[in-house]
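Sample entry (205 residues):
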Amino acid sequence: MGDLLAERLRLCTDVSSVLNTTLDRCLTLVGTGLGNIQLVDWSTGYLSIAAQRGFSEKFLSFFARVGAHDGSACGRALRARDVIIVDDVEKDKSFSPASRSIVLGDGVRAVQSMPLISTSGAFVGMLSTHFGTVRSPGDNELIAMKALAQAAANAVIAHRARRADLYPRSLDLIASSRALLRRIARDNGSGREPGDDMKPFARRI
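Predicted structure, serialized as tokens:
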């Protein structure tokens, strides 16, 4: 599946088509109609939604920008540089009352957020899937999601590198991503370095 997806992503004409192809493949894989991909802006350190399926305007507005300080699944995954699973949003204590209300209001009870990290170790963004029932993914599902996320991150970087006007900026952003992740790691006391392999199984909340 990974090689086939990578080939499909190579045929995409721009970053938007890469993200939409990845998201559709992922949602089919895990069996849900709710999900999004965020790209990270390393000049600000925030995640912004770049592709999504199934969410209300209220949800999209509330989560338009998410930082590492945020208690949502994607905010925690940005901070941890690892997959974060929320089996039951209603019982999860890290969500703020406002964000919990927004998420539950869109019919979401479970979330998993997987970082988009390239083979070179660059943190590109976040792939999140959402479910209407309490749910915990299996290990095979997480392994497949990680492969999807890495293929997408590689494709995003490759597309930016093909454009002469974006290539120098892409190199700067890769360096910036590592610098910012080191700062987040220090603030979080994790001691991990950018480029460390993600754990094969989930950090379960």
